[in-house]
């Protein structure tokens, strides 16, 4: 396995872009990443495009609009982890010597999706008939019962991420809320309220990865990928203890930490999949940022806020940067690249050296989902 | 790069299966391939699922129904080359040492797709507004003008593939036609007639691949993958000479031959992407089975029929085995595996040692498509 580096990143602002095509969101991101990398775009030997609902050939259509034809392209879908899966494949392609420069990008335009998915294709647990907010509500209740978590803890996470995003010009929202406002917003699935859920978002994000053999050709600062792991979910039954960390996050996290040779305590900055604030709280435990049953302490003590020991989602996360499905995992990589290069102006984690990205895709496996990617990044 | 072997294959009958779910088509194929491989299904360390229109998470949903959870799954889409792309990724995963046993499968249920794709996501050349049969008709006309090809040549290819499929119990059709019947069937885009076009099909196909390190654990006969290459299309302009071999086929073919260390003349049996009979004729030249401008000679002399020098599509091809998009590329691998193991009863190419699979995905790049995979297989 060769060392792999992030040579450049780029993304669109996340938000509602009803006037733009999915392709245009994609190529704005790709163009930015290629420019940031310093590589000529003809150097790219492989491209993976993550998306969920943009139709066949979106990767090729996007690159065609940039005149980037001929490059091998794979369109990948792993629910909300589609972008992360594209990143993982691009990493693997370079790590295993299949290419020296590769492109991972993701794109999603959700504002004009014409209708809901058929029920059998939607993110519903077939065994329980639960849609995603309902699944998160069950998990929330289990943590409340087992560990003394309160709805205020979830609200504080939402407040934190919205606070963070006021420093992120790419975020869908740059607006702060109080704990009371979060708690008093519309109930989606008790105790999950509207402001504890990610919004509907359009956007694109891209990253150019390269091998150590071509590193430095361009003179740009670099971030090294020290480990990346993809896993899928296992079945969750009625007897599952929902107050336990989800194995879908814990298994790739262990693999990525081991590959990287780092401990959770080494991590300086984290981007996690906060599709809801409930998810973020549970991921603290599954990622090893604290012991099981202690996530609420991290929240109360501000350890995951900017300035804390393990700042989580300095970008604003899915909750406030927004969640254009296929683009999200790559946007997390963009954010950590900027953080590790010291370029995250307005939301910079001081002297960040080790970063962790975590993105998971829900799905019919329900609480344990379809796919999860965890990767460890390091400042050079 | 490690040697990679095909340890087992399985597929459903192709055809109309209105009463079955896409998942059930998938798991019938996967179950067959796993059983054929002799490996315990828990040995599978990676799975790639090719599909075009089966919705998010189809790979995970299919495997979940078999109790195969936890395995890393990537859902891939590359238009009609989706299954081939899944095969290519599974090959690459083993070749590069990421897993010892991997699963490639494809599934598509087209009979109950609820409506056409939005125009901007369909397989239309945006610069010319041409749907696929129209593109093939242009190519046909160019070959007729430049090389003296006649509609009878296309009809003969359809007759040949329908003849072949009478020996294939997995084929959608087991019915022969005369040249006259093909020519007199309904005109789709002159000179392309209905019987020169592939039908609408449901089906699943799967292959279990393994490294040399675990080879022989199961005692089953094996086929070695000597080379596999994925490429994407380049733009086609109004000044393109459509009588030339498409570069989308020629480029991965050259790469696969080079990786395999074989020449086109070494190839004993071929499965090509005959979405139309016109396509098959042009692929003869792009794959190097003959010189440019000589494809019609192969047809006239029966060189690509069973018993000829280069039997093409002994399965019946897309034209008669059928074309369930994401399953097709994997079904081609199933057929060649059976051929190389001497198990293609009723359509066996005698003493076949080297096989070639070719599958391409059309798309908005139009005549030059989104993706093409060519792989060289060898009998052990």
- What is the chains' assembly state? homodimer
The largest beta-sheet of chain A arranges its strands as 3-2-4-7-1-8-11-10-9
What are the low-pLDDT stretches of chain A, counting only 5+ consecutive residues below 50? none
- Measure the end-to-end span of chain A: 18 Å
Relative helix content of chain A: 25-40%
How many E strands of chain A? 11
Q: Give the strand content of chain A.
A: 15-25%
Largest sheet of chain A: 9 strands, mixed
* Radius of gyration based on Cα positions of chain A: 19 Å
Q: Assign the structural class of chain A, choosing from mainly alpha, mainly beta, alpha/beta, alpha+beta, or little secondary structure.
A: alpha/beta
Mean pLDDT of chain A: 92
How many helices of chain A? The count is 11
Order of helices and strands of chain A: EHEHEHEHHHEEEEHEHHHHEE
Pair with the biggest interface: A-B, 50 and 50 residues
Shape of chain A: globular
Keywords:
alpha/beta, 11 helices, 380 residues, homodimer
Please tell me about this protein's structure.
Chain A is an alpha/beta fold and 380 residues long. Chain A is built from eleven helices and eleven strands. In chain A, the strands form two sheets. In chain A, strands 3-2-4-7-1-8-11-10-9 form a nine-stranded mixed β-sheet, with helices on both faces. In chain A, helix 2 (58-65) links the parallel strand 2 (46-50) and strand 3 (73-77). The model of chain A has no long low-confidence stretch (mean pLDDT 92). The interface between A and B is large, with 50 and 50 residues.
């Amino acid at each position: 396995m060769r060392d792999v580096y992030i040579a450049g990143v780029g993304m669109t602002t996340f938000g509602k872009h009803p006037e733009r095509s999915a392709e245009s969101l994609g190529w704005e991101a790709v163009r930015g990443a290629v420019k940031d990398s310093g590589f000529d775009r003809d150097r790219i030997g492989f491209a993976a495009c993550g998306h969920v609902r943009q139709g066949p050939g979106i990767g090729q259509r996007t690159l065609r609009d940039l005149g980037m034809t001929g490059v091998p392209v794979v369109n990948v879908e792993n629910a909300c982890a589609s972008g992360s899966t594209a990143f993982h494949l691009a990493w693997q392609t370079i790590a295993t010597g299949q290419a020296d420069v590769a492109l991972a990008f993701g794109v999603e335009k959700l504002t004009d999706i014409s209708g809901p998915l058929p029920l059998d294709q939607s993110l519903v647990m077939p065994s329980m008939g639960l849609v995603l907010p309902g699944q998160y509500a069950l998990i929330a209740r289990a943590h409340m019962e087992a560990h003394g978590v309160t709805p205020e803890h979830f609200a504080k996470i939402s407040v934190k991420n919205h606070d963070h995003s006021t420093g992120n010009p790419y975020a869908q929202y740059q607006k702060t809320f109080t704990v009371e406002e979060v708690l008093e917003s519309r109930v989606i699935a008790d105790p999950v309220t509207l402001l504890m859920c990610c919004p509907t978002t359009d956007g694109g994000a891209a990253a150019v990865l390269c091998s150590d053999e071509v590193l430095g050709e361009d003179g740009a600062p670099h971030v090294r990928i020290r480990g990346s792991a993809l896993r899928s979910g296992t079945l969750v039954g009625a007897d599952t203890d929902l107050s336990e960390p989800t194995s879908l996050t814990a298994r790739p996290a262990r693999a990525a930490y081991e590959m990287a040779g780092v401990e959770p305590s080494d991590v300086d900055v984290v981007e996690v999949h906060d599709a809801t604030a409930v998810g973020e709280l549970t991921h603290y435990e599954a990622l090893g940022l604290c012991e099981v049953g202690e996530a609420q302490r991290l929240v109360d003590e501000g350890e995951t806020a900017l300035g804390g020991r393990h700042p989580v989602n300095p970008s604003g996360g899915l909750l406030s940067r927004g969640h254009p499905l296929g683009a999200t995992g790559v946007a997390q990589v963009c954010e950590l690249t900027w953080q590790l290069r010291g370029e995250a102006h307005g939301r910079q984690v001081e002297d960040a050296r080790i970063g962790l990205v975590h993105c998971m895709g829900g799905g019919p496996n329900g609480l344990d989902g379809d796919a999860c990617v965890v990767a460890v990044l390091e400042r050079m």
